[in-house]
Automatic annotation (TrEMBL):
Residues 202-219, 383-394 form the Tyrosinase copper-binding domain. It holds the Pfam family Tyrosinase. Keywords: Copper, Glycoprotein, Melanin biosynthesis, Membrane, Metal-binding, Monooxygenase, Oxidoreductase, Signal, Transmembrane, Transmembrane helix. The lineage of its organism: Eukaryota, Metazoa, Chordata, Craniata, Vertebrata. One of its GO terms (molecular function) is metal ion binding. Residues 1-18 form the signal peptide. PROSITE patterns: TYROSINASE_1, TYROSINASE_2. GO terms for cellular component: melanosome membrane. It is found in: Melanosome membrane. The chain crosses the membrane at residues 474-498. This is Tyrosinase. Its cofactor is Cu(2+). The gene is Tyr. GO terms for biological process: melanin biosynthetic process; pigmentation. It is a single-pass type I membrane protein.
Length: 529
């Protein structure tokens, strides 16, 4: 597209909307550009009366962006979420949520003071009852309306700048499918024009932190609708796999007996309907996906283009990827060389770390191999294998963080593609999360992976935890006791030294020599106490 055409299009562009807390999907909130819902616990905005948080102006990053997106003010996702809201809840302490009504990841309890680590496990290590419970939870999410969130069915302009709200309900599973679509969709430029080189969740530094938040939020919502606070997403370790081991009716659905592109009717996943898979149709209509059902899940694992993805990833490729010391490099997009992120995402060769977009490695290889709904970026989360796959990708990210122990400054602060700088808020999450906030070990976010645990350390930490918690609660008394003890010790020491000095001054000449010099080295020191 020529620069002249770009300039003309700036006049006719139609921005689009994101996912919203239900409490803010109304005319008043949109016109005031404020999303600070009351917390049910005390009825005050952001739970301010209970010191949980307060309604504050959003501080946006001013760091420069990369050159990949040559527009400004044409997409509602720019400077998220400022097109819709410039005031949201800022939570204090360990509180979190769009109204500060929840605990930060890794905390629980009435006042969010209890630390806890949940363990994500290999799906093949689950008992039959645990596996069946996981599958039942997936189906429950697909058939339960989200209580907290709705999706936008029109652009901000179509909403008349907020005076005509356009939202609809959506089930909990599809909410996350829609969010994944929304973050990766093309920019609508009016007429039949779109800008494809934009993605707020892929092809740049934010790929791994974004999907980490996505899984944590998905996990949290399942915990809420089931009441199972211990629920965690299982992972599928696909290293060196010869085929799709989870593609059976016992797990994520086998192959249809007569149509290899469909799932077996013996799996309830065969009745699931997908959404947000027709990107070209939305682009031609200059519209958003409105979550209308678009047919069954498609999957034909292994019958993909072998020239692009000849097989599933190997252990050796994962190990090479982990050896890369740079998180990000160069242009910080899919052309980056020697970038851990780009190699793990799959745009760089997993044997050389040189960008090669004609091939699909590691993360991308799995998507292509599935040869169906998983293989189209915007609608890939429709297939429930998505969460198993990304949980394992996140575990590789975690291994890299533990091996290289990067400082936060390793994550790019500026010049990354739009939405991917360290201080940018992730699209389309409300509550707001910055990319850099999730560039840290998973245990700080309240979870770990079964195969990454250090048993001895974990058992020692578990032993110490209750005592450390008690010490934390009485630390002020402990400090006071230490100060008093120090003063008493100093006074007693002074008195002892004074008495000793006095005795030496009066009787030093008649005291016998206790130890001859030649025997001195044979005597052990012993404490006087």
């Amino acid at each position: 597209m020529s620069l002249l055409a770009m300039g003309f299009l700036l006049v006719i562009l139609q921005p689009s909307a994101g996912q919203f807390p239900r409490a803010c999907a109304n005319t008043q909130s949109l016109l005031r550009k404020e999303c600070c819902p009351p917390w049910d616990g005390d009825g005050s905005p952001c739970g301010e009366l209970s010191n949980r948080g307060s309604c504050q102006n959003i501080l946006l990053s001013q760091a420069p962006l990369g050159p990949q997106f040559p527009f400004s003010g044409v997409d509602d996702r720019e400077d998220w979420p400022s097109v819709f809201f410039n005031r949201t809840c800022k939570c204090g302490g360990n509180f979190m949520g769009f109204n500060c009504g929840e605990c930060k990841f890794g905390f629980s309890g009435l006042n969010c003071t209890e630390r806890r680590i949940r363990i994500r496990r290999n799906i093949f290590q689950l008992t039959t009852s645990e596996k069946d419970k996981f599958l039942a939870y997936l189906n429950l999410a697909k058939n339960t309306l989200s209580q907290d969130y709705v999706i936008a069915t029109g652009t901000y302009i179509q909403m008349n700048n907020g005076s005509n709200p356009m939202f609809r309900n959506i089930n909990l599973y599809d909410l996350f499918v829609w969010m994944h679509y929304y973050a990766s969709r093309d920019t609508l430029l009016g007429g039949s024009n779109v800008w494809r080189d934009i993605d707020f969740a892929h092809e740049a530094p934010g790929f791994l932190p974004w999907h980490r938040v996505f899984l944590l939020m998905w996990e949290r919502e399942i915990q809420k609708i089931t009441g199972d606070e211990n629920f965690t997403i299982p992972y599928w370790d696909w290293r060196d796999a010869e085929d799709c081991a989870v593609c059976t009716d016992e797990y994520m659905g086998g192959r249809h007996p007569t149509n290899p592109n469909l799932l077996s009717p013996a799996s309830f996943f065969s009745s699931w309907q997908v959404i947000c898979t027709r990107s070209e149709e939305y682009n031609s209509q200059q519209a958003l996906c409105n979550a209308t059902s678009e047919g069954p899940i498609l999957r034909n694992p292994g019958n993909n283009d072998k020239s692009r993805t000849p097989r599933l990833p190997s252990s050796a490729e994962v190990e090479f990827c982990l050896s890369l010391t740079q998180y990000e490099s160069g242009s910080m997009d899919k052309m980056a060389n020697y970038s851990f992120r780009n190699t793990l995402e799959g745009f760089a060769d997993p044997r050389t770390a040189i960008s090669n977009i004609s091939q699909s490695g590691l993360h991308n290889a799995l998507h292509i191999y599935m040869n169906g709904s998983m293989s189209q970026v915007q609608g890939s989360a429709n297939d429930p294998i998505f969460v198993l796959h990304h949980a394992f990708v996140d575990s590789i990210f975690e291994r890299w963080l533990r091996r290289h122990r990067p400082m936060l400054e390793v994550y790019p602060a500026a010049n990354a593609p739009i939405g991917h700088n360290r201080e940018n808020y992730m699209v389309p999450f409300i509550p707001l999360y910055r990319n850099g906030e999730f560039f840290k070990p998973s245990r700080e976010l309240g979870y770990d992976y079964e195969y990454l645990q250090e048993p001895a350390l974990d058992s020692f930490q578990a032993f110490l935890t209750p005592y450390l918690e008690q010490a934390r609660q009485i630390w002020a008394w402990l400090v006071g006791a230490a100060v008093v003890g120090g003063i008493v010790t100093a006074v007693l020491t002074g008195l002892m030294l004074a008495c000793r000095k006095k005795r030496r001054g009066t009787a030093s000449e008649v005291q016998p020599l206790l130890i001859e010099s030649e025997d001195y080295n044979n005597v052990s020191y012993q404490s006087n106490f």
